[in-house]
Amino acid sequence: MNWMIWAGASLAILGLLGIIWSVILVIKAKRANLDDDALRAAMSRIIPINLGALMVSVLGLIIVVIGTKMFA
After folding, report:
1. What is the phi-psi region of residue 35: left when phi exceeds 0, alpha when psi lies from -120 to 50, beta otherwise?
2. Ramachandran angles phi, psi of 10, nearest 5°
3. What is the mean pLDDT of residues 58-64?
4. Span 29-36, mean pLDDT?
5. How far apart (Å, rounded) are the C-alpha atoms in residues 59 and 66?
6. Cβ pair 63, 4 in contact under 8 A
7. Where would I find the beta strands (DSSP E) of the chain?
8. What values do phi and psi take at 64, rounded to 5?
9. What is the rounded distance in angstroms from the CA atom of residue 62 to the CA atom of residue 51?
10. What is the pLDDT of residue 2?
């Protein structure tokens, strides 16, 4: 089950990179000096990216925990 740990770690890292990417998108949107409606529209496009990345990261961590329990 060693492969399971590495697969889960890869998913967790991929999710972390997605979260970092969504933070960068938010910073760019805030620095663009948009009006309220445009900023809300930009944030509404970024929120699904953030939630998806969070889900991938959590699933990766769950797989790591399951892999370590099966491997021990």
Report:
1. beta
2. -65, -40
3. 97
4. 94
5. 10
6. yes
7. none
8. -65, -45
9. 16
10. 87
